[in-house]
Please model this.
Amino acid sequence: MARLRSRLYYAGLWLISLVFFAPIAWIVLASFKTRSDILAVPPKLFFTPTLENYVDLFQRQSLFLQLGNSILLSLGAVVIAVFVSFLAAFCFSRFKPKGTDFLMFLLLSIRMLPGPAVILPVFLMYAAFGWKDSHLWLMLFYAMFSIPFSVWILKGFLDGVSTRFDETGIVNGGSWFHVIFKVVLPQVRPGLIAAFIFNLIFVWNEFLFNFIIGGVTTQNIPYALAVGTYADGGVNWTFISAMTSVYIILPITFIYIFQKYLLVGMTFGTVRGEV
Amino acid sequence: MSAIPSRPPLARLFDDRRTMVLTLLAPVMLFFIVFNTIPTLWLLGLSFYNFSLTSGMPPEFIGARNFVQIFNSRNGIWLDLSRTFTFVVCGVGIQTVLGAALGFLFWGSRDMPGRRIALTMLFAPMVLTPVATGTFFRFIYDPTFGVLNAISNGLFGTGPIDFLGNPSIAFWAVLAVDCWMWTPFMTLMTLAALGSVPKAELEAAEIDRVPFLRRLSLVIWHHGKFILMLGILLRTIDSFKTLDLIIPMTKGGPGQQTRLVAMEVNKQAFESFNMGWSSAYSVLLLLISIAMTSVFIYVLHLRRRREG
Amino acid sequence: MTVFKSPGSGSKFVLPRRSLLKGGAALGMSTALGAPFINRLFAAEEHPLAGQSIEMNILGIAGWVPSSLGVKMSPLFADFVKEKYGYNVSFAFAEAPFSDLFQKAATSLATKSQEYNIIISDSQWLGALAKPGWILKLNDVIEKNPALQLEWYSQTVVDTYMTYPDGTKDIWGLPQEGDVEALYVRKDWLEDPKEKEAFQAKYGKPLPQTFEDFDALTMDEFEKIAEFFTRPDDQRWGFAQQYSRVYDFATCAFNNFLWSRGGEIWDPATGQIEGILNTQQNADSLQAFKDWLKYCPPGATNYGIAEGIDVFTQGKVFSTIQWAAVGSAMITEELKGKVLVVPPPKHGTGDAAKRICSMGGQPWVINAFNDEKKMRVAIDFMNWWYQPDTAVEFAKRGGNPCDKATLSRDDFNDINPWNQTYKFMLEEGRSRDFWHDPKYSEMLAIQQEGYSSFVTGQSSDPKAVLDYIACAQQQILSDEGVAKTAPSDACATTSL
Model:
């Protein structure tokens, strides 16, 4: 009886997962259909699959440039952000300088303005300094957006790491550098990975700033999607389904691989909760 | 006990707390100042001017007239705000409740076969590009070509339902997509929150046969509060800015039913290039957002993680 | 070469060494420059840029055939100038979707950047790009370049793609793609004997079969046909047109009704909208516009260009009012030979019946901040574009040129199935564009919202909707100084 119950329980959970995944499955399915099949009424579940969409996709000019840019910009930005945020979070957690609360709040306010509001001043600034269409400066901009969440989450994790570790490290003659990077950092690795993945997801899908302050050399995939959605006046269903299917592979893979880090919460010192 | 080795002078420099704080915070503050403060100040300044990018004329100082215009506006600012609030409150509410429920359900499933895959599938909606999501859901909702109508018509025999064209249900149809995308995020946050609970305390509560609800409030809530609240906070802030999802689906239509505040900013800043007006509007939105967040943080004591 | 006279020097024939050297260098250079000319004296013309390599950037509309045609044909231009003028040009392209293109162009031009040397603009943006001085005024250019002094097919072409402000003689753009509204119908359904019989039996008239039949057709008669083909049970409907709130879709489709029934949207001379847009006549037109939803598939309230193409190519509708520019997308491989492209039906009855439809299309505009070299190339490009060969090539690839000479060719109608209708609608008085005012985007957004609100049933009174729109637009124009009068007091109570 208990086995039946747990079987039903698991089946229920699987059903929920499938329901959430269904629209994505639909998109992936569509990427193997011809345009007529996609638009067929009633919607076709069974059809002869075709690889044509993918062939067309990979023959698109600039595709690899855009893919490369997406990867480079996202990974670069988030790595920088997490590193910088870690330093700041360490400071807030250990030294608790005056104004910590205020600064933490201020950082959060970065996310509050909608893109279109800041795009023009940012654009003018970038144009004035000649930072347009530059990988480095676009990456730095994305890094800034990733900092708030990273700082908050890392501080939470760091607060859970007892200061005794720091003291031990210093008493044993280590420098702060040693304490930060060799003693404390490994303990908050789950937090670092969580911050990394969350921010990766947000930056991965960024379009507006790449469109306006990026340019031809830094174009990324969301830009390609926006530009390629319409072809010859009609919606290019085959392109967007194939492109989307390819584009979600990386984030989903990351979520799969690093799942346990995402699910591990913040804990006190040594006792770790399991999920 | 060996003598404490002496450390090189440079390292000793960092013993000074002050220097340490400054060094650690410097990168973040630099980022903040360059990429955030400067644009925000510009925005603040420009909100007192009348500046249309396409008029070819230089900005003209008009004091607080932009703000007055916003409050008197016939563009239905209040309607937009109330619509946005409804969107945020209902959206985050549904996402949190549903997300937490799913989180609890999945929490106890450690032995489920293929759990990792199931969870990955559950989290997948978060990673789609909003533009693609909007375009595809537009298709899914379409009365002629869409899957939903095929199901509703085929299985339940309802007539064609125009989800995005019907003024009474368009708003909820759009909200449903937002919930679809972000409920998994709240589930993730819940699972992380639950993971924060030390196993020892949980087991102690079980042994003491503390009823579930009490267990919930005493043990689980106490430890998991922080990360869950962080998730809700983040979702609220982001939800207030919803834009990318709505534009491909309805662009604010039918009529004005799905028009949210961020879209008005987008329209003014980006389509009409009324920089002064849109800056003023953005400043207002920022103030509202700050107010919301402060209340939130204060009420939930997020600033300090309570010890013990 | 200047001759330097040192003060107080005696002889005037002694040339200081420096200017001698300079002179020698100049002579040498001109010989070097002249060398290519000597070879091509008979095939080429002298050109200041000869021997140089220039890079040009074109900003075009993503996913829009005529724009991509303009872009695809640029290698032909490169070949042409190499032959004729002796310089190399290479092109780089940037694209943005319709709804974002103006943003991309405006942000770039606002910083006086040379990022985009030539831009394919939408016709209504002309004012917004001209007023701040971002694009080049072309009157002088046209004067100096005979190749650009073309006779255009009709005054409509000049008004739509070239002139701003409306009614003046200032020219800011040159037509890239002409576009008009056309009615696409399923010829195979019309020619089906069973359908013909059934229709004759039901209405006592035959189904129209030819271009001329449709030319004479009125909306009332057409309604019967649309009704006849509306069979929801078979998943078929009689008609589709654009109702979407996005961009200018609902406006363009509704203006067909508004103008054809004798209404106006504004008075360009005084900038007056109130009292002109919100008349009872226009309100009736708005109601009629909405009534046609009953012959359209469900969800038509969200239809823009793309959806119109989808429903037609999937065989869901008998007819669609759609732009001529997307003809190649509307007539797919499967539909070849099954589609007839005709003018939209007339509104009204008898001799007073007429059709006045929206004008689409895009002009070329030139960045005002181009440096001398790029400006020269841009002008050469225009000269080349309007050559008869280029225009015909453009038409053969599916584009719509606008000059009289090309359109008057005997074989023009045969190049594309929609060409006959295109020419027809391009004639005087049959098509119109809406305002080119720099504030067009705000005015457009308001009326898109209003029309969408009405057709989806959110607002129920067409006159009230028009009042709201007219008042809001009047406010915008009067703030701008274009309209002479401010909105009236009645405006305080309008809302959607």
